[in-house]
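Might you be able to check the backbone structure tokens below? Thank you kindly.
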Amino acid sequence: MAIKDLIPQKQAGYNFAFLDEHTKREVRRKILKAVAIPGYQVPFASRELPIARGWGTGGLQITLSLVGPDDVLKVIDQGCDDSVNAVSLRQLVAMTTGIKTTFETGRATVIQTRHRIPEEPLTEKQILVLQVPYPDSLRLIEPSEQKTRQMHAEQDYSRMWVYLYEDIVNWGEITIGARYPVLVHGRYIMDPSPIPRWDVPKLNMAQNLYLFGAGREKRIYAVGPYTQVVPLEFSDRPFQVEDFSGKTCFYCGSKDSFLDEIFNSKTGQKIYACSDTAFCAQRLKIQSAVREEKIVGPGKK
């Protein structure tokens, strides 16, 4: 196969990045407002796309509105580059733009993700777009959107604190796993999307821009670079991430990454593996290079 066959080619009959230019401008304007008011949910006219709502239409509309010919795109689903959702969205963007795609976190300029933030720290030149099913943490305590918007406007979050307190009374700890509520810039309580608690600290004072898109709920919100993001906690019940003490990745041996418990069909036992497949592959690549260097010798082939 020739190298040119591996480079994505834009399909004829589509506008660049599928969406019309008017829609892109509208989404970009809402993104600017969201960046200017961190954590605030900005309504936008969510468009129809060739995927079902709830499968990442909000994040996809942000991605399609931002990418340019020189961008490099990475799409992951729960840390994996090869899931059905990730492959389908990556192919749609590549077919309608012709831009390059990658599995390597460090090479991507735009990363669209579902339920995970990459383990590799991101830089100021990268944008992370998160797919969001439910954009408002207050839905845990109030089903009415009209009332939750009023609560945000008045900064009335007392019922959320009561909810967390009752959780501690009933279970001895805050049992929220994914979608752990955070306070952004000392003002808005925000839903960080269904990322695990492990990823929540990565939002605080990060170098990169975080954009959140909820297509079904028609909301866009953002966390700009170097913005304070603090998980809700009590002084005697501090926020805690998932505990993987004594567990390592079966493949790369990592002890400092988010691990998934999986079933090994060869051994018939449960093992742990890095959720971020690119992070795991990079560690394996480095380990292989180190072993080869030791066997062959430095500077030799």
Observations:
- The first strand starts at residue 42 and ends at 43.
